[in-house]
Protein: Nucleoid-associated protein SADO_00865
Amino acid sequence: MKGQLGKIMQQAQAMQGKMQEAQEEMAKMEITGESGAGLVKVVMNGKHEVKNVVIDSSVFEEDREFAEDLIAAAINDAVQRVSATTKEKMSEMTGGMDLPPGMNLPF
Structure:
């Protein structure tokens, strides 16, 4: 029995190491969200930090509210894409094992 517990602990440590590597990899990834058929693009990393914003000059020909809406929509799209990508990668790491509600790995 004691040997089995040691084996489980080793597996848990190995999984923890893999999770750490995955978290570091995901923090470095860059995902682009967009709106207005590409008129506004937002690049976000895996930590949900905005790294770059590109706004087509035609957006500024419209009213301010239009531009603000496109920017907000592009940010929301980027957040959604980062979350989906993170969930997918974590599912690969955990072998599809469902995590308890509220346990949002890695961040």
